[in-house]
Amino acid sequence: MATEDKNRATAAAILPLVGGAANVSSIAHCMTRLRLGLHDRSLVDDEALKAIPAVLGVVEDETYQIVLGPGTVARVTPEFERLVEEERAAAPVVHTSEELAAQGAAIRARQKARNATPFKLFLRRIANIFVPLIPALIGCGIIAGLNGLLVNLEWLPAVTPALAAMASGFMALIAVFVGFNTAKEFGGTPILGGAVAAIIVFPGVARVDAFGQQLSPGQGGVLGALGAAVLAVYVEKWCRRWVPEALDVLVTPTLTVLVSGLVTIFGLMYVAGEVSSAIGTFADWLLSNGGAGAGFVLGGFFLPLVMLGLHQALIPIHTTLIEQQGYTVLLPILAMAGAGQVGAAVAVYFRLPRNESIRRTVRSALPAGLLGVGEPLIYGVSLPLGRPFITACVGGAFGGGFVGLFNQLGDTVGSTAIGPSGWALFPLLDGNHGLGSTIAVYAGGLVAGYVAGFVATYFFGFSQDLLTEFDVSQEPAPSKIAAGGPADPAGTGPGSPAKEPAGV
After folding, report:
1. Does the first or last residue of the chain, that is N or C, have fewer Cβ atoms within 10 Å of its Cβ?
2. How far apart are CA 346 and CA 455, in angstroms?
3. Which residues contact 444 (CB under 8 A, 6 or more apart)?
4. pLDDT tens for residues 421-452?
5. Dihedrals φ, ψ of 262, to 5°?
């Protein structure tokens, strides 16, 4: 009960600071953030929101995003939704048509101005398909790791088969969930997308010959499911246009499953299977031959990819690798970007001994950063300062190079799920040389990222002008820090509401 009260108190503290229920147009959440659609952005009190203990930071994108961290956001969001409903029921708000038209025009203009390129919109859709699956991937991945440990230790032999079933059940049917979410995202009937995708994992496809070879259940995996569901959406929409209303309930679902199902069996499963195999082969080749160099590049460029929203393109690749190999070898390397960020933040702390405002931000955001929640450090510390963001990338590169080197030497490090990073990734680690070796390599990569990020930032992260501006002996005035300072008229300084690219 105390936890429920705490979550409700957090929601109650947030609501008036975003303009109340009347200002909220939509509510959603992802792994770490409460995402709000707002009618009027000017009604939000950013500084007061950041002062709430549970709030790790705020980010403005197409939606206004309040960073609460994993776990917390899933508990606070339902309480926030209930409070909004209660406030609206108690005091319904009546808008004039002119007000609604003006608000709608402003919202559309803001959305159009920010990251509305076709490629980024496509990546956002891909993320919307796979992000809802992450909690199940994490839960099943941890159970799989626990089961592997018990099997290796020969403990609880009567229990391990049950754990194996729990860990594997979701992955065996993940294509169905991908198909369901894909149809929902592309404007079709979700259950029809799931029905077509289910063909891919149905054992009976083993009796089908396509392209001169027998199909195997699961061939094509999530990529095949995604393609099958998109095709089903287009077939369904065509049927809705041409099939008479009196026959729609019978003809449309039948033709949707029949046409897209045949194309899936006699085309998509084979093609998607070849693509999936190529992805796995390329990832293995890259780390076996590129080693430290490949890890250095991947770890160093991941933070900029996140900033551009391009990291979402990796989600299907991670999922495909987990399907094929039981883990993704890319995630532990990419997670080193967070280690570089932590090292850079610690260096900032020591380089600005008289700026208590930034040092306080570092202290409050470091625990989240160590657990893989990097937004508070990125948007509150390194990115507004400029150079420390680059040196954080250097730290990530060295950490990635460390893990990549061991991959080249034959000690593979992978993650059984996507989502967490930092210390939170330890329970999800898996590899080919035992859990102890895998943990040691990953921990060594984190240390390399911490140290490299610290050293690069401490010695190369600050110009003399930057030190003069930010290493102040008194508490910085809001006009200097919260608004970005005189050299930062756009208002992107530490403590200001950062502008996050689409898809982060």
Report:
1. N
2. 10
3. 402, 403, 406
4. 899 899 999 988 888 899 999 999 999 999 99
5. -65, -45
Question: Phi first, then psi: what are they for 477, rounded to 5°?
Answer: -70, 150
Closest CA to 248 of 196, 307, 189: 189
Q: Which residue has the higher pLDDT, 91 or 344?
A: 344
Q: Report CA-CA distances (Å) from 25 to 37, 40, 78, 437, 501.
A: 5, 10, 15, 49, 21
Q: Are 224 and 178 in contact (CB under 8 A)?
A: no
239 carries an active-site annotation: no
477/368 Cα distance (integer angstroms): 26
3-state DSSP call for residue 31?
A: coil
Query: What would the pLDDT profile of 141-191 be if each residue is shown by its tens digit?
Result: 889 888 888 887 889 989 999 999 998 999 899 999 999 999 999 999 999
Min mean pLDDT across 113-122, 243-252, 291-300 is at 113-122
Return the domain boundaries, the chain.
Answer: 2-114, 131-286, 303-499
Q: Which amino acid is at 391?
A: T
Q: Which residue is associated with the tokens 């509305």?
A: 116
In this prediction the pTM is 0.73
Catalytic: which of 30, 140, 239, 393? 30
Indicate the average pLDDT of the chain. Answer: 84
Beta bridge partners of 43: none
The DSSP symbol for 268 reads: I
Name the class of domain 2-114.
alpha beta
* Residue whose entry in the numeric block shows the structure tokens 């160099």: 293
Q: What pLDDT is stored for residue 502 in this prediction?
A: 33
Q: Which residues contact 363 (CB under 8 A, 6 or more apart)?
A: 349
Q: Which residue has the tokens 């609880």?
A: 156
Q: Which of 414, 418, 342, 426 is nearest to 381 (CA)?
A: 342
Q: In sequence order, which residues have a C-beta less than 8 Å from that of residue 214 and are 6 or more positions away?
A: 206, 207, 208
Least confident window among 210-214, 242-246, 420-424: 210-214
- d(CA 117, CA 119) in angstroms, rounded, equals 5
